[in-house]
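Might you be able to review the protein record set out just below?
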Amino acid sequence: MSDIMQHLPQIGAAYMLYLVAVISPGPANIAIISTAIQRGRKSAFVIMLGIFCGSCTWALAAAMGLSALLMQYGQILEVLKIVGGLYMLYLAYKASRSLFAGASSADLPQAAPQASLRQLFLKGYAIHLTNPKAIFGWVATISLGLPEGSSPATVALIVGGCLATGFTIFSAYALLFSTARAARLYTSAKRPMDAAMALIFGAAGFKMLASAT
């Protein structure tokens, strides 16, 4: 418990970084949104569960690998902070570019209308398992919030809290975007959302790079 209390600021920063990452538009969120709009709530929750299972896979892989390596090689944390910081800056760049592009419901990828629920689940899992945003997002989150030599309780707190956050956000996308009004709101709010994401990702990237020096 004392280890957790000592590193609460880092854990809080990791939570915030993951929250921004999971809310921001990406392959997983777009897949949930498009499925909710075109096939309804049930199908959206099925593909969401597949995506969440993919997130669990990367979370456990990142946590187990990092916690073991950091116990012996603290410099790996510095490398991961640099990689994660650069990736956050890349996401900020992508979000800023989107400010100058319009958005419409036609931008959403088309979901296969005849796909079974099992196929939708596997599609969601494959999307997140091969999604660079998910991979580097988890690496960045854990490397930011996981101090060298952290206890298993600290690792579990970061992973468990982030997974709970991800499940809540993914479920909210599936629930909210199964209505026609939500699709219109997504289109109208995309530009200010991109501006906010650019600022937050940029700040997170610079913070990670600064902490690695």
Observations:
- The chain has nine helices and no strands.
